[in-house]
# Entry
Amino acid sequence: MQKTVELLAKDLNSHGGVFCPSPLADMKLWNSHPKVFLDVARTGHATCPYCSTEYRLKAGEHLAPH
# Structure
């Protein structure tokens, strides 16, 4: 089952992404897959290649230019 996590701009790290597994997805690190970086800033969403969790910016959220 694919899970979708809506993100606020403030949830992204300084590189414009998140790591999966993530506490934002209610995942416990001890029973999950290897940590992977997902670039959300580029397209507004990214899908984990291990667990298929989709991370996407919440509607109306905007990223500040660097």
